[in-house]
Specification:
The protein is mainly α. 76% of the residues lie in helices and 0% in strands.
Length: 352
């Protein structure tokens, strides 16, 4: 009885904190995609706090199955959140909603019909393997984008937030798989609720200790104001900026394979952290790949508009500018110009 009471209290505390966090995130950062996804992730986590129970196999009602479906679909939201948080060129696509809907629908059908018909253990294993898959994707996204992140405050907190959420999600999935159908004692669910409450509290504290403008990208108008302010404050580092621009403009170092911020820092003979701060605070970029791609796209635009290169394939222009394949080039080009490379070339040819 005591454990049940503690379990309910911990769940209630987690739900309350998550709802407050969701409201705060939406109010403060609802104008940017990462902020909206963070709020949605907090709401989905609240649904998880309500329904999470280790080893439970009893029949459930449709209303509870719906909440469980929202909780299961939250792993997709977590994956999308990590993408939007660390890649400012990321945009939601229709198929992202389709993936979320498919995962949530499978969870609902699983709860209502598959589990009663074929046994709860296999159903629990299937759902939690899906959850583990999306957690792995989220962690991989965090790792691969780490080196290109230029925002120092976000670099410090990002690993903690994603690692804590992924660690809890992963352990919860492993426990669900290993203890499903075993009649696990109440202590397992209570410990799980305590771990969730601790993770939610720790993430909330971490987010309060970092400037929200560092963690989330600013709205376009705020970014423009920040860029103007950065120009005013850049006089002390002007020589370094000039040297960096020579590397980009004269030497076209962005064309080189696997160019990294460490490569540029070595060429400029300065510490890597100083170059990150320079590009972020003085030039207004939050992501190193965006900084590189703007130079690459500028070269590609000039080539596509050049009548003498009208017969040069788009893929050749893309690779000459430093892109490794056509897909990333097309996405980056459209994100900056609003049109595809082929459309851009056609528009320039008709205007000539």
């Amino acid at each position: 009885m005591m454990l049940s009471t503690i379990d309910i209290a911990l769940r209630g505390a987690s739900v309350a904190l998550l709802l407050v966090l969701a409201a705060s995130l939406f109010r403060g950062f609802g104008t940017v995609l990462a902020g909206r996804l963070a709020a949605a992730f907090a709401l989905g986590s609240a649904a998880h706090a309500v329904t999470a129970s280790i080893g439970a196999t009893s029949q459930i009602a449709a209303a509870q199955a719906s909440v469980i479906a929202l909780s299961t679909g939250n792993v997709v939201v977590f994956w999308l959140f990590t993408r939007a948080l660390f890649d400012e060129t990321f945009r939601l696509r229709w198929w992202h909603a389709l993936i979320w809907g498919a995962v949530a629908a499978f969870s609902f059908v699983n709860c209502m019909w598959i589990a009663p018909a074929s046994g709860a253990r296999l159903s629990i294993i299937a759902v939690n393997l899906i959850a583990l898959g999306f957690i792995v994707l989220a962690v991989a996204q965090t790792i691969t984008s780490w080196s290109s992140d230029l925002v120092e405050g976000r670099r410090r907190v990002r690993v903690f937030i994603v690692s804590a959420a992924a660690l809890y999600g992963g352990l919860n999935a492993v426990l669900q798989i290993s203890l499903s159908g075993s009649g696990a004692p109440e202590i397992a669910s209570t410990v799980n609720s305590a771990a969730l409450a601790a993770v939610v509290a720790a993430i909330s504290i971490a987010m309060m200790r970092v400037d929200g403008a560092d963690l989330f990208p600013a709205a376009p108008e705020a970014q423009a104001e920040a860029s103007e302010a950065a120009v005013v404050e850049s006089s002390a580092d002007q020589k370094l900026i000039d040297a960096l621009m020579r590397l980009m403009g004269d030497e076209r170092i962005y064309r080189h394979d696997n160019v990294t911020i460490g490569t540029l820092a070595t060429r400029l003979a300065i510490p890597e952290y100083r170059l990150r701060r320079l590009i972020n605070q003085q030039l207004g970029y939050r992501n190193f790949n965006v900084f590189l791609n703007e130079h690459r796209i500028a070269e590609a635009k000039a080539a596509l508009a050049d009548p003498s290169q009208a017969e040069v394939p788009v893929i050749t222009i893309a690779m000459d500018a430093g892109f490794q394949s056509l897909g990333p080039f097309n996405r980056a080009f459209k994100a900056i110009t609003g049109v595809t490379p082929t459309e851009y070339r056609r528009l320039k040819a008709s205007a000539a």
